[in-house]
Amino acid sequence: MTKTFTPARPIWCAGCGDFGVLQALVGSLEELKIPPHERFVTAGIGCSGSLQNNLSCYGYHTLHGRVLPTVTGAKLANPELTVVGVGGDGDGYAIGGGHLMHAFKRNPGVTYIVMNNGTYGLTKGQASPTAPTGYQDNLEEDLDPVMLGLSIPGSTFIARAYSGQPAQLARLTTEALKHTRAGKGMSYLEVLSPCVTYNDTYRDWRTSVYDVDSEEGYDPENRTQAFTRMQELRDEGRLPLGLIFRSDRAALESLSLNHDYPAPALQDITKPDLSGVCNDALQSFIK
Amino acid sequence: MSDVKPVLEDLNVIVAGQGGDGSLTVVNVLADVLRGGGLRVYTERDVLSRIKGGITAATLRAYDGERLCISSHIDLLVAFDQLAVPKYAFRLNSQSIVIYDSSNGELPEGHGLPEGVRLIPVPLSRYAVKHFRRDIYKNSISFAVIGRLIGLQDDEMEKAFVKRFTRRGAQAVKYNLEALAVGCKLSDEAGLEVGKGKFEITSQDAKPHMLITGNEACAFGFAVAGGRVFCGYPITPSTDVMEWLVKWLPKFGGVVKQAEDELSAINMCIGSALTGTRTMTATCGPGIALMQEGIGQLGMAEVPVMIVDAQRSGPSTGMPTKPEQSDINLLCYGGAGDFPRVVIAPGTPEECFWLTITGCNVMEKYQVPVFMCLDQGLSQNTATMDPLDLAGVTIDRGDRLDAEQVAELEVYKRYLFTESGASPFAAPGTPGGMGLVTGNEHDEFGLVSVDPINRNRQMEKRQGKMESMKPELPKAVTHGVETADIAFIGVGMCYGVILEAMDILSSKGIHTQYHQVRTLWPMLDETPAFTQRCPNTFVVEYNYQAQLKKLIHSHGGNDENMHSILRYDGVPMQAKDLVNEVITKLNLKEDKVA
User: Fold this and answer.
1) Which of B271, B427, B438 faces A69 most closely, judged by CB atoms?
2) Strand B536-541 to B562-566 pairing
3) CB–CB of B228 and A282 under 8 A?
4) Residue A195 in contact with residue A121, Cβ under 8 Å?
5) pLDDT in tens, B556-588
6) Which CATH number does B211-392 carry?
7) What confidence score (pLDDT) does residue B3 get?
8) A18-260 CATH
9) Is B290's Cβ below 8 Å from some Cβ in A?
10) Looking at beta carbons, which residues of chain B come within 8 Å of A44?
11) Which residue among A37, A76, A267 sits closest to B430, beta carbon to beta carbon?
12) Looking at chain B, which residues constitute the CATH 3.40.50.970 domain(s)?
């Protein structure tokens, strides 16, 4: 067996919520029997941006905020990979926030996990887009990315978990991977993942989370109801968890690629089809 | 009138009007007819950054030989809007002819035309509205007048119309042919009967030619070179690269994705390239600026992506539809930190094709970003060229490892130290080759590291690629008299105008040469050495700061021997401008010049 990199030990603070996310992701990848070489794990910048170093995979550390464009490009080029993007709330909702709505709209076959702790831990605790009013003198209303996702017609899988509730986190991570692997497009999983050093929210979140999975009558396939319920729970000061919304729609790559060919990454391009398509293109400049 | 007419050897036509008047269509159809007759054609556009309105123009040169620029002599101006006449009057001479729309009356005084210009008023718009109730048919009516004037046969024009308008449907063909007939009748009334054309149009060299722009040639080269993913964001004047690929890349098994902005575009490209797919984007200065962080990532993380820069007038939003070559600094020096990159500067559409293929090979072999440095003129002007011989295409993907090759290794390291600086690459999906890619400084496995010894070695590994790749980069081409002590240096759209200036100078007994540099970064030793050797080197460029000249100087070029010819007004140079500069600068005798 060829030796390759040995997954590093996480560099997170003891008690960081991100440990839970790593454990859930590794568990789900194993459960679904996805071999390391088929995993393409991409992480953003921030504490969560080192997760790809901690499991066996093909890993890529993106520029700050660019997880979603990167995984979209990778999935279009090679849909046979299991493409997972991870990052923090600053990465995904602030510097990379512009990409989020387009990713929902495009629905590429990727799993996107955001570890939301409401703060910029790596730069010592500034307010992030999801920080509540008052945190570090934050004057702004916090962003609700789940409701943003629900408001975009193309979104197909929206869930939220809490790293303090590992069983649900594990189940939703597996569900997210399954949704994407079934060709239905982007699965978005936000994980409430406390920063024990700069924004220790374990105690607050333990009491404010609310599980829609166990709510009788909650229908995750009804976008309108989901949106209304999210607004109600927000008004009550609750943090909804669970599979919030799911729908069926073909993934971007299956709509975009020419299926007469293997995936772009898997074609042998060393011998161009000179008498076929190359010549057709050439002739188009002559006629 | 005598039956002996001059053979058409060099025809230069400006068709101008309001944006949306169809000037470009007239020029395109005319180009098509004339190249069918064996002439080579070159077309240029002078447009504004708006969909309709404003005075815009399309210019055509038909030449019995290769010319990649418009001549200083304009034979014919067609003006759909009378305001176009004063705008382009300075380009006409006493032999020129002006066809203008006289629907609203005769051309008023103050048009600025040189004495002797022949005026042909034709009520184009009035007839278009009268016959078709639509003003837009005036360009098809005008075509008949132009064709009769220069000596085209009516049936040639009809054939060209059928060819041009068929893709727009049978109705379009029918009405445009009727418009052509209206135009022929108007021509008869204006004394331009069949057979009274100005020129004899012969068909000596009727072998097929390609008609292509630099943007299209880059896109075509990319597809043939095995490029399979293109991600971009529309921006003038680069957009035609994406447009061509949208149409063709799926037929090659590839895909085009239009991103939400340039930040996304370059990062989509990174994602695609990480899977081992040949990947391209195209943009211009403002887009390069937005992509800059991603371009640094390509250099640091060692990811190959090709970036076409169709340079336009800057700074900032500048003049979006006008040419400039002012991104040279940005391409060669832009970005945070030190990283390797390649900047290739083709001079013709043919070079755009071949050098895109070379660039694709170099980028994968050395895992670096490669820029194709074009400009609005080279990107968007159309030129004829001999059909490409695709048998010359070779693909080199560098040291890529498949599962079996990985299995034979004791250890796989994504950033293995090697002599060339490039490390063998196993694409994601390859069993056993798992690796980490990052824009942080990293060890050979790709794990983040700030160890100073490792840092030095990794930096030297990356920078070392620049030296390793030099033998594979496009070398300069010398045109003209190799021993001449007057020379030109210039890239992109300077190519055609320099070659014509050299011919004019040569006809005056002044011999010159053209050192056509084709790799700007890393600069090859040949160019600074050339400026040491040649005492009078004119560096022609479209920018204010003499970016190319300074680049050569900073690599050891002789500043005393180099003279700048700079242009930054957004207007393409003419050969006579260069000729005058050379003569004035070198104080050459006037009698040689006359």
Assistant:
1) B271
2) parallel
3) no
4) yes
5) 999 999 999 999 999 999 999 999 999 999 988
6) 3.40.50.970
7) 60
8) 3.40.50.970
9) no
10) none
11) A37
12) 211-392
Contacts of B429 in chain A (CB under 8 A): 37-38, 58, 78, 80-81, 265-266
Q: What angle do CA B168, B174, B175 make, to 5 degrees?
A: 90
Q: Return the domain boundaries, chain A.
A: 18-260
For residue B448, count other CB atoms closer than 10 A to its CB.
Answer: 15
Q: What is the DSSP string of B139-168?
A: HHHHHHHHHHHHT--HHHHHHHHHHHHGGG
CATH of domain B477-593: 3.40.50.920
Dump pLDDT digits (tens) for B89-136: 999 999 999 999 999 999 988 889 999 999 999 999 999 999 999 999
- Yes or no: say if B214 and B379 are a contact pair by the CB < 8 Å rule: yes
Q: Classify strands A126-127 and A119-120 as parallel, antiparallel or unpaired.
A: antiparallel
Helix and strand element counts for chain A (H, E): 10, 10
- 3-state secondary structure (DSSP) of residue B71: coil
CA-to-CA separations, A121 to A19, A49, A205, B337, B440, in angstroms, rounded: 15, 12, 18, 26, 18
Is the Cβ–Cβ distance between A69 and B264 less than 8 Å?
Answer: yes
Question: Which of B182, B144, B114 minimizes the C-alpha distance to B26?
Answer: B144
Residue of A nearest to B444 (CA): A5
Q: Strand A39-43 and strand A58-61: pairing?
A: parallel
Q: Return the residue in B277, B360, B414 with the most chain A beta carbons within 10 A, the one to mutate for interface testing.
A: B277
Which residue do the tokens 């004047």 mark? Answer: B237
Q: Rounded to an integer, what distance in angstroms lies between the CA atom of residue B238 and that of residue B323?
A: 12
Cβ–Cβ gap B272/A264 under 8 Å: yes
Helices B23-36 & B154-165 angle (0-180, nearest 10): 120
A·B CB contacts under 8 A: 237
Nearest to B229 among A61, A73, A285 (CB): A73
Across the range B489-506, mean pLDDT stands at: 98
**A281 part of contact set with chain B, CB < 8 Å:** yes
Could you tell me the two tokens for B106? 């005769």
Residues B21-44 as b or e (16 or more Cβ within 10 Å = b): bbbbbbbbbbbbbbbbbbbbbbbb
Instruction: Please state which CATH number belongs to domain B10-189.
Output: 3.40.920.10
Predicted pLDDT of residue B594: 38
Residues of chain B with CATH 3.40.50.920: 477-593
Q: Which of residues 228-267 of B touch A (CB under 8 A)?
A: 228-229, 231, 248, 250-255, 257, 259-261, 263-265, 267
B4 lies within 8 A of chain A by CB: no
The DSSP 8-state label assigned to residue B137 in this structure reads G
Which H, E and C letters describe B194-239, residue by residue? CCCCCCECCCCCCCCCEEEEHHHHHHHHHHHCCCCEEEECCCCCCH
Q: What is the DSSP letter of A92?
A: I
CB within 8 Å of A63: residues ≥ 6 apart: A45, B267, B293, B294, B297, B439
CA nearest to B536, candidates B568, B500, B511: B511
pLDDT at B110: 84
CB contact under 8 A, A69 and B430: no
Q: In A, which residues are within 8 Å of B268 by CB distance? A: 69-70, 72-73, 76
Please indicate whether, in this complex, the C-beta atoms of A60 and B274 are within 8 angstroms of each other.
Answer: yes
What local confidence, expressed as pLDDT, does residue B203 receive? 59
In one-letter notation, the amino acid at residue B226 is: G
Nearest alpha carbon to residue B534 among B500, B583, B566, B489: B489
> Residue B255 phi/psi, 5° resolution?
-145, 145
- Nearest CB among B226, B265, B412 relative to A269 is that of B226
Say if the Cβ atoms of B429 and A37 lie within 8 Å. Answer: yes
Question: Is B427 an interface residue toward A (CB < 8 Å)?
Answer: yes
